[in-house]
Write a structure and sequence with these properties.
Layout: H1 2-24, H2 26-55, H3 57-66, H4 77-104, E1 110-115, E2 119-124
Helix pairs in contact: 1-2, 2-4
């Protein structure tokens, strides 16, 4: 319950900051929306999988026991909860870093980039860009 309350507070706070930033910087707003969406989606999917695992634990265990050993991990939905929350936390950290740069007025020196077209990170702008 405490974890859910913490995530809710972070979501509300992030939304309030986005509303303010949208008024002054559309590029920052668009990039922050991407990070926000990634975090919410990762937490949402993780939460759904965790609940499915809790509700259908016995059924999933029976499926894992009936499958070949190399396929059984695909039905360990609790493990996907950890992966999803880790992705959500990472997106939240990058979001908070980006928010700080925007609030300090230094975001023009940085760009939001993606490694392997998926993993967001903040990179300093090179002088030749």
């Amino acid at each position: 319950v405490a974890y859910g309350i913490e995530i809710f507070v972070v979501l509300v706070r992030s939304t309030m900051h986005q509303i303010e930033i949208r008024k002054s910087n559309l590029r920052a707003y668009a990039e922050m929306q991407q990070l926000f969406g990634l975090g919410v989606a990762a937490f949402g999917v993780a939460f759904a999988l965790w609940n499915i695992d809790n509700i259908y634990c016995n059924n999933l265990r029976a499926i894992r026991n009936a499958l070949p050993m190399f396929l059984a991990p695909f039905f360990q939905l609790h493990a996907y909860w950890h992966i999803g929350t880790a992705i959500g936390c990472y997106a939240s950290i990058v979001y908070q870093q980006y928010l700080r740069l925007v609030m300090l007025g230094t975001m023009d020196n940085y760009r939001l980039r993606k490694a392997a077209f998926i993993v967001p990170y903040i990179d300093r702008v090179r002088k030749d860009e």
